[in-house]
Design a protein that fits this description.
With 654 residues, this protein is of the alpha/beta class. 39% of the residues lie in helices and 22% in strands. β10 (230-232), α9 and β11 form a beta-alpha-beta unit. α8 (209-222) crosses α9 (240-253).
């Protein structure tokens, strides 16, 4: 695996591999953290010592094998150490989405039966204290950042450093800890991760060390990851992708994991770290592209011309150059010039100058967005995975990267498509169970270990690549029998920098209609350049010129859909720009920013009916949740607009 020796296969748990790394890779960087503007680095020997001290402190506080330990906060080295320390003690870490409201956290901690919680700061302590009376199992909270917590009751509240100090002082329990680490097996629970809950309450996915390590080892070999690589850990710690990259693969390969100073400084920290391995869901790549397009709007005439000319050339030859395919000398020369003038500076601005491998997953990415990054020379690939699979189901091999597939089965993964078109898989990474939900486990995983993904797709003949159409439950038919695949259409809309989110309706209907959320950064920048005053998101969203722009985008998508005989019937006839952004705090999106279609359909039912009734406007009033938990209402009279569609006879001719 790369140019460094990998841990022996006999090391079947993460704590055992950490011990091995602390010796074999003792001086190599394992963790980086930016604090007070300065990057601090911790070697593998440091990480083992810090995690071990914390583990001894947890034993001193009464943590026992089998206990669950909630982990809540932004990506911080000490929270990753807390997960490793919990595992050393035979306990199970349960990462929780840090932006969850108190009631969401209460559900997860109560369902998991967490006895301990390790949290980042006062904000997270306050959330848990507000629901403490509904968490009978929770006995102790440990915080990393002490600011603001001085006058709190510390009978069952402890500082992270204090727990480590207890551990270092109680070295007499070192043999007990060593015995716990040595007796652990690969079949033991490694982590419990809660699903995003698009259709109901989140489910606790139990993953063993065998699950995580088999997936981490096989995927690392597939992409030749090694100790010289580095990643930026900025995605939620409660998401399986972060766990596999920042814990599983990092431990197996020995590469370093850097944590940004804050969510607001992520982009600047990305530039400073310059990772070689970068993962992001489509939303992040969309936002990065939006920031580029906003800056180009403010650029001078010459810069705009250079950008347009060289990007057109990059889109034509860049992906072929990246894949090592034949490209003419003059095209290569022009691309090299473009790299000097446009692509290189742009990749540096995006923090991707050193990226040799990038991945996107979580949901489908728009083909245009995907090709934009590959045209720049960023080796961006798609993978298809789930929490229940320890991430990896399919991956794209070098030289076989396409926007319309998600690749071939990952090493050790078997695929099949059932008679309804649903994708099933089986692999060593398949989860153990849904915690306390045997009936849900049986619905998802059959006795032979095959797991239903809930996605509709097919395997291409000849290439063996998997193509995902949409969520199986979302794919439907229009009233005239045309295929309806909402996510595919929504991704096309979200390619435009002005559109942040879109929700398309049409199953069983005579036509497709859409909700649109504008991107406040992009559209606000446009409004400022054009001297358009506005007082709120709601006011800007309903501006006539904004509607003109969104209509142009919708009609461009319609023309694109008309070129695909399978999806031409899904063109958007009518749309509305919503008066508020869809928000996870309002239950409209999951914490991983996936649309909760059922909730949106119920909450905005009057607007949907207005779209289909032919109405020109509708008054809407919607309850919202503010950051501090207070409730309020946003109201507006929404315009409903028609969009031009390509007539049936032109579709037939296409």
């Amino acid at each position: 695996m790369g140019d460094h020796v990998a841990p022996p296969e006999a090391l079947d748990t993460l704590p055992k591999i950490l011990d091995w790394n602390a010796t074999a890779r003792a001086g190599l960087p394992a963790s980086r953290e930016k604090a007070f503007g300065i990057w601090q680095s911790f070697t593998w020997a440091d990480v083992r010592e810090e995690a071990r001290a914390f583990a001894l402190g947890l034993l001193n506080l009464g943590l026992a094998p089998g206990d669950r330990v909630a982990i809540v906060g932004e990506n911080r080295p000490r929270l990753y150490w807390a997960m490793a320390a919990s595992q050393m003690c035979g306990a199970v870490p349960v990462p929780v989405y840090q932006d969850s409201v108190a009631e969401e956290m209460q559900y997860v901690l109560d369902h998991a039966g967490a006895r301990f919680a390790v949290v980042e700061n006062q904000e997270q302590v306050d959330k848990l204290l507000s629901v403490k009376d509904r968490l009978p199992a929770l006995e102790r909270m440990i915080y990393v950042e002490p600011r603001g917590l001085r006058r709190y009751d510390h009978e069952r509240l402890h500082a992270f450093g204090e727990v480590q100090a207890r551990g270092r002082a109680g070295a007499d329990r070192a043999e007990e800890l060593d015995a716990l680490i040595a007796s652990a097996k690969g079949a033991d629970t490694c982590v419990m991760l809660y699903t995003s809950g698009t259709t109901g309450k989140p489910k606790g996915v139990v993953l063993s060390h065998d699950n995580i390590l088999s997936a981490a080892r096989s995927s690392s070999v597939f992409d030749d990851l090694c100790a010289a690589d580095s990643v930026l850990a900025y995605l939620p710690m409660a998401w399986v992708g972060d766990f596999i990259f920042s814990m599983g693969q990092a431990y197996v390969c020995g590469f370093s994991v850097a944590c940004p100073e804050s969510a607001e400084t992520m982009l600047s920290d990305l530039k400073e770290i310059g990772p070689t391995y970068f993962f992001a869901p489509p939303r992040v790549f969309e936002n990065l592209l939006t920031s580029v397009m906003i800056r180009m709007e403010d650029a001078g005439t010459l810069k705009k011309w250079l950008f347009r000319v060289f990007m057109d050339h990059a889109k034509r030859v860049g992906p072929d150059i990246l894949d090592g395919k034949p490209v003419g000398f003059m095209d290569r020369l022009k691309y090299r010039l473009g790299d000097l003038l446009v692509y290189g500076p742009l990749k540096n601005t995006l923090g991707m100058s050193r990226v040799r491998l990038g991945y996107t997953a979580g949901e489908a990415i728009g083909p245009e967005i995907f090709q934009f990054y590959r045209a720049l020379g960023v080796n961006l690939k798609q993978l298809y995975g789930q929490t229940e699979a320890s991430v990896f189901i399919t991956m794209q091999p070098n030289g076989e990267v396409r926007a319309d597939t998600v690749g071939v089965p990952s090493p050790g993964v078997e695929l099949r498509i059932d008679e309804k078109g649903e994708v099933w898989y089986r692999s060593p990474g398949v989860f153990v169970e849904y915690y306390k939900q045997p009936e849900k486990t049986a619905e998802t995983k059959d006795p032979e270990g095959w797991v239903a993904t809930g996605d509709a797709g097919f395997i291409e003949e000849g290439t063996g690549h998997l193509r995902i159409i949409d969520r199986a439950k979302d794919v439907g038919k229009m009233a005239d029998g045309s295929l309806f695949a909402p996510k595919f259409i929504e991704n096309k809309l979200k390619f435009f920098p002005d559109i942040l989110e879109a929700v398309v309706f049409g199953a069983g209907r005579e036509m497709c209609c859409a909700f649109v959320n504008i991107d406040l950064g992009s559209v606000g920048n446009w409004a400022e350049r054009n001297n358009i005053a506005y007082a709120s998101y709601t006011e800007l969203a309903q501006h006539p010129r904004v509607y003109e722009t969104i209509r142009a985008h919708v009609e461009a998508v319609n023309r694109s859909l008309a070129e695909d005989p399978m999806l031409a019937g899904g063109q958007i006839h009518r749309f509305v720009v919503l008066h508020k952004q869809l928000d996870a705090d309002d239950g409209e999106l999951t914490r991983t920013q996936k649309v909760r279609r059922t909730i949106i359909a119920d909450r905005y039912a009057p607007i949907i009916e207005a779209l289909y009734s032919g109405a020109k406007e509708i008054f809407a009033e919607t309850e919202v949740t503010y950051e501090d938990g207070r409730k309020g209402k946003i109201s507006a009279t929404l315009r409903i607009e028609d969009a031009a569609v390509v007539p049936a006879q032109r579709r037939a001719a296409a």
